[in-house]
Design brief:
By secondary structure, this protein is α/β, with parallel strands linked by helices. 51% of the residues lie in helices and 15% in strands. It is built from 13 helices and ten strands. The protein has helices at residues 4-14, 26-39, 49-55, 57-71, 85-94, 108-125, 158-168, 185-188, 198-208, 222-231, 240-256, 263-266, 268-285; strands spanning 18-22, 43-47, 75-82, 98-101, 130-134, 144-145, 172-174, 183-184, 212-214, 233-238. The strands form two sheets. Strands 7-5-4-3-2-1-10-9 form an eight-stranded parallel sheet, sandwiched between helices. A two-stranded parallel ribbon has the order 6-8. Helix 10 (222-231) links the parallel strand 9 (212-214) and strand 10 (233-238). Helix 2 (26-39) crosses helix 13 (268-285), helix 5 runs parallel beside helix 6 and helix 9 (198-208) packs parallel to helix 10 (222-231). The longest helix has 18 residues, at 108-125. It is globular, with a radius of gyration of 18 Å. The relative contact order is 0.14. Bound molecules: zinc ion (ZN). Zinc ion (ZN) is lined by residues 80-81, 181, 215-216, 237.
Length: 295
């Protein structure tokens, strides 16, 4: 079984991206893992500070590890958007494969300093752990937003990207390239889609020479996602699309079976709804090639 670093290198070589899906319960974990297994592609399970507080830091580590071992499948665990060093250390000690250390809200110099310290501290705990740093503004909250946030001033520049990578020693960079967290109502209704700054991705990739992560991938134009991956994006985060599917699936189950109380008869609905999202997104991120022979 290869580690996450090898899998990232292989994905860069093949011009594909690893899907990163946030989960908060076993239903979503099953949806993510079974899709990756069926398509025979690696996958990243993400838990934000809030998500891992709910599911438990050591509990999610044990769950992901048990899947990896039992099925011998490359599934990795990422501590998404970790805003403080103590929380990052807690995840590293529990056995996470990667950590997004996110102090991007701070001024650039402070972001550099704190991220550099975090990289050193985390690699001391586990030299194999991968640390992702973030510069620029991609908004907050994987939810449905009423209004478009103005993130135009917060786009990452190639010069900043190079300086940040060289000064911090991070393994993965999360830039702001037109992406944003959450979805607008119009995106949920399918009327609008997020568009990405592809030339900027090309320039940042050239400057940073590291795997790049696209946060806030939900609701992004499919063709832009394909182009972004070709331009150098190696990890794509999907959260809001999964949350919407989970809720709609649950609502459908309760509407169809108003008197059902058996959880394992209700929960396959949100599981299957979420799986449709993970399946189609993984196919797109992996250039559809993995779709051959599957449904
Ligand atoms: Zn994110």
């Amino acid at each position: 079984m290869h580690g996450l670093r090898d899998v990232l290198e292989q994905s860069q070589k093949n011009g594909v991206a690893i899907g990163h899906f946030n989960i908060a319960d076993l239903v979503l974990l099953k949806a993510v893992f079974s899709s990756a297994q069926e398509l025979k592609v690696p996958v990243l399970v993400g838990v934000s500070e809030g998500e891992r507080e709910f599911i438990g830091v050591r509990q999610i580590t044990a769950l992901v590890r048990s899947l990896r071992e039992e099925f011998d499948h490359p599934v990795f665990l990422n501590a998404d958007h970790t805003h403080s060093l103590p929380k990052a250390i807690e995840a590293a000690k529990a056995g996470f494969d990667a950590i997004v250390f996110d102090v991007s809200a701070l001024p650039f110099e402070q972001n550099v300093r704190q991220t550099k310290d975090a990289v050193e501290a985390l690699k001391t705990i586990n030299p194999a752990i991968l640390v992702e740093g973030e510069i620029g503004n991609i908004g907050t909250g994987s939810e449905i937003h009423e209004e478009t946030p103005d993130l135009s001033n917060g786009l990452t520049t190639p010069i900043e990207a190079r300086q940040y990578v060289e000064s911090t020693g991070i393994d993965i960079l999360a830039p702001a390239v037109g992406n944003m967290h959450g979805m607008l109502k119009s995106m949920v209704q399918g009327e609008t889609r997020k568009r990405l700054d592809i030339p900027r991705i090309v320039q940042i990739k050239r400057a940073a020479r590291l795997p790049l992560t696209l946060h806030g991938g939900s609701g992004t134009d499919d063709e832009d996602l394909r182009k972004a991956i070709a331009a150098g994006i190696t990890i794509v985060h999907i959260n809001t699309e999964l949350r919407i599917a989970w809720r709609r699936g649950l609502e459908e189950a309760l509407a169809k079976h108003p008197h059902e109380v058996v959880p394992y008869k209700i929960l396959p609905f949100p599981l299957n709804a979420a799986k449709q999202v993970t399946h189609s997104r993984l196919k797109l991120f992996n250039g559809e090639r993995s779709a051959v022979g599957s449904h």
